[in-house]
Design goal:
Blueprint (H helix, E strand, L loop, with lengths): L4 H13 L1 H6 L2 E11 L12 E4 L5 E11 L2 E11 L5 E8 L5 E9 L24 E8 L1 E4 L7 E5 L4 E11 L2 E11 L12 E2 L2 E7 L18 E2 L2 E2 L4 E6 L6
Parallel strand pairs: 5-16
Antiparallel strand pairs: 1-2, 1-4, 3-4, 3-6, 5-6, 7-9, 8-11, 10-11, 10-13, 12-13, 14-16, 15-16
The structure holds 2-acetamido-2-deoxy-beta-D-glucopyranose (4 copies).
One 2-acetamido-2-deoxy-beta-D-glucopyranose (NAG) binds next to loops.
Length: 249
């Protein structure tokens, strides 16, 4: 990882020197960022300065998955060329507050360097007032970690959460192959932090939970699922907000 501004400068210089190649070919910002943050909004510059030249028929993409449990937020972000999909901006709230919050954003666009979002200010606006509003009786082990949680303190849950979630995710694609462990309070039922939406741009998320022995085998999980779609307008961008609410039978 790490930025390599020199390489970016060289490429940009070449582009400037031969505008014909710009007209024909697509160039995209490239980068991968994987981290656990206290506040991801200003945590990093998502536009690294690295540049990737794409094959014909490609798009530029920028995609990020954010998962907050307790005070920590996992950030898995990718930029680069992609050959699949179509131009679109997608914002999905996989699991809503209170409790564990999971959102993803993906932008596929057609012009060189159009994947130029620098921070997550427009994407990440979690609830601030979660800490004081806690229930007296529900506590959950809480953590989020790349790999495995080293410790997961049992913390009081926000009101309106109903259970503890414990799951392992594997995020693959877009230059990322990373395991993630997530524990915390939620109102999501079952192993459904992603709400059944497992693609985040070029990333694919595999979600696995260790059920208590009472729960039925996995096949019974394909119960009634419904997604609620709504469109939001944000300040600078028209974002398609796909708000998923999932009910398991
Ligand atoms: C982020 O990095 C890009 C490329 O290096 C640079 O052009 C841009 O100014 C940076 N943005 C911020 C807010 O530092
Ligand atoms: C890509 O498409 C352009 C214009 O259609 C064409 O001139 C160029 O040869 C193509 N490049 C490759 C590598 O196929
Ligand atoms: C979150 O951070 C605040 C301030 O640093 C701290 O007071 C609070 O105990 C933390 N909460 C959790 C759940 O870790
Ligand atoms: C949270 O739930 C507890 C117990 O149900 C209740 O006493 C308390 O008033 C609730 N707090 C808020 C802020 O809703």
């Amino acid at each position: 990882m790490g930025t390599r501004p020199l390489q970016g400068w060289l490429l940009l210089f070449l582009l400037g020197a031969s505008p014909l190649s710009l007209a024909q070919n697509l160039y995209c910002h490239q980068g991968v960022y994987i981290s656990i943050e206290d506040d991801p909004r200003h945590a990093f510059n998502w536009t690294t300065g690295k540049v990737e030249a794409c094959d014909n028929g490609s798009f530029c993409q920028e995609s990020v998955l954010l998962i907050k449990a307790g005070n920590k937020t996992a950030v898995l972000a990718s930029k680069g060329c992609t050959t699949e999909g179509s131009p679109a901006m997608t914002f999905i709230q996989h699991s809503p507050p209170p409790g564990i919050v999971t959102v993803s954003y993906s932008n596929y666009c057609e012009e060189s360097f159009c994947n130029d979002m620098e921070d997550l200010l427009q994407i990440w606006k979690p609830e601030r007032n979660e800490v004081p509003r806690v229930t007296a009786n529900l506590h959950c082990p809480t953590c989020v970690a790349l790999g495995t949680c080293l410790n997961a303190p049992s913390l009081p849950c926000p009101n309106d959460t109903t259970r503890c979630y414990q799951g392992k995710l594997q995020i693959i694609g877009g230059g990322i192959n990373s395991p993630l462990e997530v524990k915390g309070c939620t109102s999501v039922i079952g192993c459904r932090l992603m709400a059944g939406v497992f693609t985040v741009g070029p990333m694919w998320v595999k979600e696995v939970c260790q059920y208590p022995s009472l729960i039925q085998p996995r096949k019974a999980e394909n119960g009634a699922t419904w997604l609620l779609f709504s469109v939001w307008r944000l300040e600078l961008l028209l974002l398609l907000l796909l708000q998923s609410v999932v009910h398991c039978s």
